[in-house]
Structures are given as C-alpha cells and as structure tokens.
Amino acid sequence: MVLCLATALVHVLLVFLEVAPPNPISRQYSRQVNAWIFPLFEQNWRLFAPDPESVNRQISARTMHTAPNGTVQVSGWFDLTADDTAAVRHDPFPSHTAQNMLRRAWTSYLETHGGDDQPRSQRAVMIQQYLRNIAADRVAAHRHGVFESIQLRVITLPIAAPTTAGEPGPGVAAPKRADTRYLPWWKVAPHATG
What gap in Å lies between CA 172 and CA 8, rounded to an integer? Predict the structure, then answer.
C-alpha cells in the first residue's frame, strides 16, 4: 500500500514537472523526468486541439532468420496497420492504445530520426527500440517460427484535399503518389512464435 502510494505521488510529481512551464527544478531533473515520461506517459495538447492526419500510413514488418546451416530466411510482409484496424473495427469501446500506439510510435520516430534513420539522441534510440519492440511483439503474436531481425516498411499516401466549390471535378483533388520507406534491419532478441 505504501509503495503504491509513493509510486503514485512520484508519478504525479514527474508529470507535473513535464507539463509545467520551464523552471529551475524541471531543468535540473529533466533527464530523470524524461526517462519516466517518454514514451508511455507523454503529455500533449492534441486532445483539445487535434492535429488531423493528412496522410494514410500502412506500416508492415517482415522478419529474418538465419538457420543453423547458414541459410537466411526472410518472411513476407505482415501488415501491422491492418492488424490495428481489425482490432478496433467492431469494438464499440476500442482502447486508445489499440488505436494509436503504432501510429504515435512512428510519428515519434519521424520526429527524432528524420529521413536518414540515424538516432541523434538517447530519446531517439529509445523511440527506435520502442517501435522495434512493438513490431516484433505483434509479428510474434501472429506468425509461426523464429526470427532474430525485423524490418519495417512504411507506405505513406497523402489524403486528397477537397476541391473548392465551383471547381470542375468529382469533388476531390487528384491524390498525390504514395511514398514507400524501408527502414534498416534491426536485431531483436530471438523471438519464437507459434
């Protein structure tokens, strides 16, 4: 009971230091606060001022396994986004986690890595590990076999903006072409699936 109360008080204090305006205490303990907050307890104002998505993303993963005889086996692509969509489609009360974990992990990855997939901070390394672990756990839950590496593919398709009244056409502007990004192969702890 005392441990739960102490943990709750520390959590509230650390969240307060994260959302409070910058001050000497939050600056002095920023490393400890960030270690506790990111990525699971991140705070932002999107609940009150959402930033709607302007693109659709399909995030897929494939795995690689090196057999004892040295042959390399690469799996087909597993659509992680479709798995998320299926999990919430017929659920009248879908969890926030099921809807947003993968999407937010990818958004955080983009914010911390840019276009070259090189982490430039400890937070970037942590976000990369977080994204890798989400993908590895989801693939392991749905596929049979063993794998030691995982690769992600992200297909980004811009959502066409509606045309203004009086413009010719069926009511929407022509969509832009899809962009496909392949992340490097990441080593994972050997996963046995099945």
Answer: 50
